[in-house]
Amino acid sequence: MSGLASGEEKGENVTGYLDRIGAGLILSNAEPFSYDYVPDLIVGRDSQLSQLAAIFQQIDDHSVSCRVAITGNVGCGKTVLSHVFSRDLQRHLGSRRDFKIVHVNCRNHPSKSQVLQRIVTSLDSRHPERGFGSGEILQSIRKQLQSSREHLILILDEVDHLLRADKGDLLYQLLRIDEGRESRGTISLIIISQEQVLDQLEGAVLSRFGRSNHIRLEPYDASELEAIAKQRAKLACKEGTVPDGVLRTIGQRASETGDARVAIELLENSVKQAEKAGRAEVLSDDVRWQSREIGRTVEPNVIDDLNKHAQTILLALCRRLRKEDEVTTGDGEKLYHVICEEYEFEPRSHTTFWKHLKRLEALELIEARTDSRTDGRGRTQYLSMPAALPGSLEKRLENTLGKS
Hints:
Blueprint: H1 7-22, H2 46-55, E1 67-72, H3 78-93, E2 99-105, H4 112-123, H5 134-148, E3 151-157, H6 160-166, H7 169-175, E4 187-193, H8 203-209, E5 214-217, H9 222-236, H10 244-254, H11 260-276, H12 284-293, H13 300-304, H14 308-321, E6 327-328, H15 329-343, H16 350-362, E7 367-375, E8 378-384, H17 389-402
Parallel strand pairs: 1-4, 1-5, 2-3, 3-4
Antiparallel strand pairs: 6-8, 7-8
């Protein structure tokens, strides 16, 4: 008999394989693995929640506005801390003061006008997206806050991207938004960054913001990462499918970075591997294997906020860089044209292609180096990506572009 199974046998094998993967032997709810998921309780950050509460202790007084800077390395819980705190604040004090919480990621919206547009449309979804200058939008925000009597809690995440372009001017204007008015404070600020952002602020901004209003988050240790993995496993997986020994291994492996996202990704990928093998329990060996494969991840909104040509360029680079370490910008542009033809897009000019490359580099999705050797045509620039990134992004980009 031929080594190939008959069509009927082949169909049965494939069906059985897919049934095994889709059976949900371990996973019961994938939502706790997502980047946007905010748990009811935050692990390992009780003292920081207490610090935030101390800074905001008078916020139920309608004349009070608060501000705080939260800093720390990637994956140390800065964003989720701000979400949990602002959500709890709204729950407990919402009967005494109306709160409006607006979260802006300044990596994706790095300019003053983009941040203001995000704020104003969060307050009023009918506000036009074009045709207004920054000063006009700021006045519109002020009027909306005055008329609604809501207190805006504005969270500016990765604010260092805004400061590089804006030098703190927008922060200064927001901090002065109630100046010259008899009414109460209308806006509180939470700024988040990997860097010590207070050192970047001018004296006039810093004096209003307050240098002491700074909460520094240290990287998670192994026991905290184990606790985070345990929390997510309890929420996402069937009881008894992720043993304590596996959670300890996740904590130990993720502690090399101190990054909670690494712990969560290790758990998620280990669950997938166990289910693919047809097992109803995750093994420590699954974690050890995944820890060798795991690499840098990218939040979905970073990809979604790129326009379709930047996504097309990124997909072209992903396909080549899964097989090679580097690609020249010239080859990258040729590959971009191929992908445009595949998705029936009209390619943009060389200048626009170059601008998109610079944007992808600024977002740290690609890395560029220039060869020190020169020829008659000048220097050659090479593009690369972190090792695990091309494989993890390719399918997401294909799905996104397929919907365009």
